[in-house]
Structures are given as C-alpha cells and as structure tokens.
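User: Could you check the structure of this?
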Amino acid sequence: MIAVAEVIPLADALIIERTILIRREAKIKLPDAVIAATALVRGLTVVSRNEKDFSRIAGLTYLNPHRM
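Assistant: Sure, the predicted structure tokens are below.
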C-alpha cells in the first residue's frame, strides 16, 4: 500500500514533449504515453500489467505485479 503520493502536474513541458515523442514512436494510447513520459522524466518505475505497450518504450523501467 502507498502511504504517501505526490501529485505530478501534467502541464510540465518535459512530460508533454516526451508524451508526444512516445505517441509518435511507440504508437500507444495517450494515457499510456503520459504515464510512460512521466515515469521517464521523473526517473520512476511503471507498475502495470500492460507489458505489450510499455515494453516498446526505450529506457522505460516497468514492473508487472502479476509476474512477481
């Protein structure tokens, strides 16, 4: 369980730019591109079962909780 969560503004210029690049290159849906861009810019790990889309993004660290 997460005890503390940080709200990350989506208006961050780096996140917006990275989202656009990810959408162009990986051809994934906008919400997934925003999640991936945020993780890349902030140095975070994505925790998701969506390996199909997130595995296409270079440099992204992701973890499938169902494979633990």
